Automatic annotation (TrEMBL):
It catalyses: O-phospho-L-tyrosyl-[protein] + H2O = L-tyrosyl-[protein] + phosphate; a phosphate monoester + H2O = an alcohol + phosphate. The lineage of its organism: Eukaryota, Metazoa, Ecdysozoa, Arthropoda, Chelicerata. Acts on tyrosine phosphorylated proteins, low-MW aryl phosphates and natural and synthetic acyl phosphates. It is found in: Cytoplasm. The keyword Thylakoid does not apply. Belongs to the low molecular weight phosphotyrosine protein phosphatase family. Its main location: cytoplasm. Keywords: Cytoplasm, Hydrolase, Protein phosphatase. This is Low molecular weight phosphotyrosine protein phosphatase.
Amino acid sequence: MSNVKQRRGVLFVCLGNICRSPIAETVFQSLIEQRNLTDKWFCDSAATSSYHTGDLPDYRAIQVLKEHGLQTEHRARKLTKEDFNKFEWIFGMDESNISNIKRMSPSNSQAKIELLGSYDPEGQSIIEDPYYQGGIDGFIANYNQCLRCCQAFLDKMN
Ligand code: 4NP
C-alpha cells in the first residue's frame, strides 16, 4: 500500500502563454511555497494558440514579476488533450479563452474550466489581454488580479 497522496493540479491558460498565464502560474507557485502546500498542489500554464510556442514570457511580464521578487523560466506551450486529465482545474483569463479551452476539451474531460477572475474578491472577473497595450500598466493590473484570485482560491480550497 502506498500512502502517497495525489497532488491537485491547476493549469492557467491564456491566448499566447507569454503574458497573463505565466504571471498567474508564477504567483500561484510562490503562494503554495509560502503556504507550505507544494505537497498538495502543482501548477503550470499553457496557451490556446501556438503563436509563441517555445518563447519566454513577454519582457513586461518578467519585469512585473521581478518587481515582486519573482522569476520564471517558463516556455510557452499549447494546451494538450493530456492537460485535461492531468489538471483538476483549468483557468482561463477571459471569455474567449474559456470558449477555446472548451472547444479543445475531450468529451470525457473531468477538468473544471473556470474564469480565474471568478475568485476575485473585488469582482473583476475578466483578466484583460495586455499584449497590445504598449505599456506595463496592464501587466501590473494582471499581476494584482492574479494575486487576489490565487489567494482567494487557495483560501477556499485549503
Ligand atoms: P497572453 O497575451 O494571452 O496574456 O499571453 C497575448 C500574447 C500574444 C498575443 C496575444 C495575447 N499575440 O497575439 O501574439
